[in-house]
């Protein structure tokens, strides 16, 4: 067996925009329902959900039978957690709250084996099909998506330097936290937030650095793809469920 190409990364490298979805229900059963929708990528979230390593594993297994590339956002830039997520077969990682070039370099290093990084070595993991992928140690790293999330005004101003770190496959703008840092809490679609983000995003795009984000407004998501964003998530499973049941109840009561 050989390392398989990462469809998400291949599409980014070919300049094909990728439409994604956020996954926080922490259930393999729910993940499989989402997987059948045909999103290009899905982000299994550990930062703002009750996900743990076992539930993430189950969701990765659910996505494995579909074309959607399943990635994981760990709760922090922690090399020990990163090692375990890579061993269970995450196709990519989104590192939250990257605030400096040094933190970006640490994130990348945690995904690389020595001498280029600090990832611990195991010869039998789900990622290498329990030792059956013969070229895993030489070919896997270029097929792993490493995405770095900027979530404060200071980090946005450093985004060009963060995005230029070797091994970074994309910079992800977190509008909710950026807005909170601006004093605009709970309003990630506020135009003032995007007036701050977009000039920086355009600079990154002009330099060939791929940029992404998560928004709940599909019209805004389409606009950002038209702006040149490479990967945009346009929905969150928990929100989809809550709004769906609320709408049903509102209709019935109305």
Describe this structure in words.
The protein has helices spanning 7-13, 28-35, 53-63, 79-87, 101-109, 136-139, 153-157, 159-163, 175-181, 191-206, 218-227, 237-253; strands at residues 18-23, 41-45, 69-73, 92-95, 145-150, 170-173, 211-214, 231-236. The protein is an alpha/beta fold and 254 residues long. The protein has one domain (7-253): TIM Barrel, CATH 3.20.20. An 8-stranded parallel β-sheet has the order 3-2-1-8-7-6-5-4. α3 (53-63) links the parallel β2 (41-45) and β3. α2 packs parallel to α3 (53-63).
CATH topology: TIM Barrel
Order of helices and strands: HEHEHEHEHHEHHEHHEHEH
* Proportion of helical residues: 40-55%
- What structural category characterises the helix and strand content? alpha/beta
Supply the number of helical segments.
12
- Binned strand content: 15-25%
- The pLDDT mean sits at 98
Write down the oligomeric state: single chain
- Total number of strands: 8
- Integer count of domains: 1
How far apart the termini lie comes to 58 Å
Report low-confidence residues grouped into runs of 5 or more.
none
The CATH homologous superfamily name equals Phosphoenolpyruvate-binding domains
Radius of gyration: 18 Å
What form results from the Cα inertia axes? Answer: globular
* Text of the CATH class: Alpha Beta
Which CATH-level-2 architecture? Alpha-Beta Barrel
